[in-house]
Amino acid sequence: MTASQLLIIDVQTGFINEWTAHVPTRVASLQESFDQVLVTRLYNPQKSLYRKLIGWADFSLGSADTQLAFVPDPAAKIIDKSTYSCVNEGFIDRLRREGIARVHLCGIGTDSSILMSAVDLFQAGIEPVVLAHACASVSGHVDHQAGLQILRRLIGEKQVIGS
Predict the structure, then answer these.
(1) d(Cα 98, Cα 34) in Å, to the nearest integer?
(2) What is the CATH number of the domain that holds 131?
(3) Deepest of 48, 102, 113, 155, by most Cβ within 10 A of its Cβ?
């Protein structure tokens, strides 16, 4: 039997605002429903394109805003990342070695990190399932809905659930 995989993306204190405040509780409660939980933490390196092109200077490695805004399951694997997506060759190799063909995604950045990660999984042949009720965008409901709409078009209508 294939293990069920939950990928919780960037639920960090620096991303909690009026639009995302519901996410920590929802992702925390989802953890018990999955065999394996992966949690990403975004940080912003000093010479990143986030700083150079976007002018975003927050989330330096180890800063308070990079701390998780929920308590991960003790068995959860934490992945620090400096890009929108944590999906890379090593990540995909690990999923394939463990026989994981489907990954459930939730967290913060429906229109950014969740979208990028889901599309990267799709392109690598791993089925992404976005749990929309446990996702949000720091820039508001309109951007959250836009992210969901783009996800439905790119990975499939049925791959976005709970919206």
Answers:
(1) 14
(2) 3.40.50.850
(3) 113
For residues 78 and 86, is the Cβ–Cβ distance under 8 A? no
Contact 18, 144 (CB under 8 A): no
Distance CA 77, CA 38 (A): 5
How many domains would you assign to the chain? 1
- Which has the closest alpha carbon to 148: 139, 138, 159? 159
pLDDT digits (tens, 9 = 90+) for 54-88: 898 889 888 999 999 999 999 999 999 999 999 99
Distant-in-sequence, close-in-space partners of 21: CB < 8 Å, separation ≥ 6: none
Strands (E), the chain: 5-9, 36-42, 77-81, 102-108, 127-136, 160-161
Residue 83 CA to residue 50 CA, distance in Å, equals 9
CA 102 and chain centroid, separation: 14
Q: Are 137 and 19 in contact (CB under 8 A)?
A: yes
Domain region containing 40: 5-161
Directed axis angle between helix 113-123 and helix 141-155, to 10°? 0
